[in-house]
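User: Can you predict the 3D structure for this chain?
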Amino acid sequence: MLDVVHAYDGKPLPENLAHHQGIVVLGGGYMPDADDRAPWLAAARTLVGEALKRGVPVLGVCLGAQLLAHVAGGTVRAEHGEPEAGSTPLSLRAEAAGDPLFRGLPARLNAMEHRVDAITGLPPGALWLAQSERCPVQAFRVGEQAWGVQFHPEATADDIRGWDAEELARQGFDQDELIRSAERDEPASTAAWYELALRFAAVVRTGAGAEAAPGDGDGGA
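Assistant: Here is the predicted structure, written as structure tokens:
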């Protein structure tokens, strides 16, 4: 079973992960504990906490990564450091060489960014996988099957056209230039992040719910 839930539109999240083999939490303009602005965040944190406890694979993207870090005991700060937008150079750390999602990817590659908040402290025991010049924590893993990526592997150059040009300008970015650079970098970055997505899907198919109760895990991601 594949559930795509737009919680920001008022759609309810699953009560638990009993019939799900993995969870992907995407981005949004909130801190991971901003329940006053986004009441669905409390339920999302509960699901991620359940996934960590049961060994259900997790992929957190942007806000999803910050939420994973928060639930697992890390720290996140609002509007921390310099913002990032558009195609951004990343560097894989040595720890990525043995990671199921990142191993074998280019040591330096680009990813789409659109952030002002940042993870400032990794959860205890987390593996630090990637960094950028302005944002040290770009990717990490908690345990064996929970990943957070601050960047947007799913985004394309075309998405930038929908971003607020005035806000980008206030942050020091030119929207047209962001589009041009993203289009230039897209062929290589798309190949890398498509491979990462395939690898996460393989983890979901083969390794989800190691601590699931009997009868669980007959659904999908």
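The chain has four helices and nine strands. Residues 175-207 form the longest helix (33 residues).
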